[in-house]
Amino acid sequence: MLHPIYFLDMHLYEYEKLRYSDSIRILILHPCSDDSDPIICTMQYTRLSDVSLEYEALSYTWGDMNHRQAIHFYGGSKTLLVGQTCLDALRHLRQKSTYRLLWIDAICINQEDLLERGSQVRIMDEIYNRASKVVVFLGKHASCSEVLFEELAAADELIMAGKECDRPQPSAEIVRALEKLFLRPWFKRVWVLQEVCAKSIVTFMCGSATASFSALSTLYFGYSGHTKVSKMQWPLVLSWMFEDSGELPTTQLNLWKRLYESRECLATDPRDRVFAMKSLTGPRQSELNFLINYSQSVEDCFIQVAEYFLSARGPRILAAIRHPHDKVMPSWIPDWSQNLPLHDFYLYPRTPFKETDIEYKDSFTCNEDPMYETRKISDGQGRETLGLLTIGYQYAKVVDRSEEFCFDSIEDAEVQMHRLYYSLVNLRDIFLIPDMKGDCGMLGHLGKSIVQAMSLIQGSDLHTHLTRFVDGFYVGDRVAIGGEQIRNFEKALQQCRIILLDNGELAITPGSVRVNDVICIMPKTDAPCALRSNEKGAWRLMSGDCYIFGAVSMLALTHGGVVLDQYVGRNLDKLQDFLIR
After folding, report:
1. How many helices (H) and strands (E) does the chain have?
2. What are the C-alpha distances in Å from 220 to residues 60, 72, 177, 193, 461?
3. Where is the signal peptide, in residue numbers (predicted)?
4. Could you report the per-residue pLDDT of 162-188, keeping only the tens digit for each?
5. What is the pTM of this model?
6. Are residues 251 and 260 in contact, defined by beta-carbon separation less than 8 angstroms?
7. Tens digits of residue pLDDT in 339-365
8. Phi-psi region of 131 (alpha: psi -120 to 50; beta: other; left: phi over 0)
9. 414 CB-side CA count, 13 A
10. Per DSSP, what are the bridge partners of residue 532?
11. CA-CA distance, 329 to 335, in Å (whole number)?
12. What's phi and psi for 417, nearest 5 deg?
């Protein structure tokens, strides 16, 4: 979100330095009765501590910065180029006869000054909290959005009057328009999460039309207590708007949780995936100020974040590496620029563990030895890198693998799930699936040995494995596959394979795992890991979040890493060191 700003060389607008830690700039947008006239502004330098300060904060997406347009200062003698989306927002925000005071990141922060960018990001939550209102600019009207905002305006009229929003269920046209609205870039950008979360007044703007959060929510979830009107999920940013930002006991855990949950959000600068979470980590968020540094590389940023987490979570951070990365950093460092989903059940407290739940009753504990350490090692090319030395045991080797699962959309995932479940009798017997006679494509996708292994598993257990979720459905009459089950299937298998191990068990791993890779179990982790050895005795982490079709992973779904500790405790004679680089 925080990109370089480009100026017109002949009329360069020059920023004055911000003098204090709470200094900000406010853009004064001059009024104009003619919408086609140039945008004229004045920059005001002020402080957040000024009790008389009033302004609105803009939340929007920068869009394509290759098509920049001019706004003018000092009556037009100084010019600044901004993105087209920013210019569109200014035109729609400009009033006919009164000045409008705005805070807009692209303009009010000197994007060329890396130190200033970092310092302003550190107080970003204060800037948005101090604003009298946050205006979300979603872009210009599209043909379908006008009818949607007419409906939202009618809902807002009832809401503002304190009346029950007892309107007719929205038409299919309005529902389609709502779904298209949720596909606009704003709903996926990572920075907008902290811009609107816990803000008292948020107005959504499309063109010049406006709507409240209440109107959007009431429409989506159905008027007068009806069920939601769309299969499309309620956007993450809207679900966070009134959520407590510090529900976990430490800043580290809150940051971990936020990074997990915002995994599918987008940022042009990968470092912003971390920086944008700061204000959402609870009352001690200032602990994260040291992380916000635009002078360091993306890799150095992620290494610093990993070291910060390692002190609190230890090897459990490996669960954030479901798919390997190709960045110039150790394989055990989580890459927060990836967008493929992670399994957030690793975030929460587990059901109390009873020894009777599992055949292994000996717990593996070693309070004096942390069972891991980091050490500086050579990367083989004359450079120094950070290795993770830990212990564990080799559970099994990969001997076969299916084709990779790839889903273009939730609808595509539904089709592939139906095809897979129809192909296997043990799944077809417990679910109502459309008739797909003659469609044997999924059998070839899986491969003969994997199909044979899957056919030996009870249908309800196999469904749990393929969705990585214990949904507790009743096994009796055949039931249709539900929307949540489809989403879990997509999340479990996106860009993954089903693999066969040399002990006869199956597992889900990322698509990059290949034959002869090793599935390992390590203490104080949340999931089995996939490792690949090299000729120098070190290992590359291919995944820290594998799922084994059996007691290991099924119990880990509800009991967490303690299950893996139990397995390690029964295999002390097989323990070995793993140096992961």
Report:
1. 20, 21
2. 22, 40, 11, 19, 34
3. none
4. 888 888 889 999 999 999 999 999 999
5. 0.88
6. no
7. 998 887 656 544 443 433 333 333 444
8. beta
9. 11
10. 540
11. 9
12. -65, -45
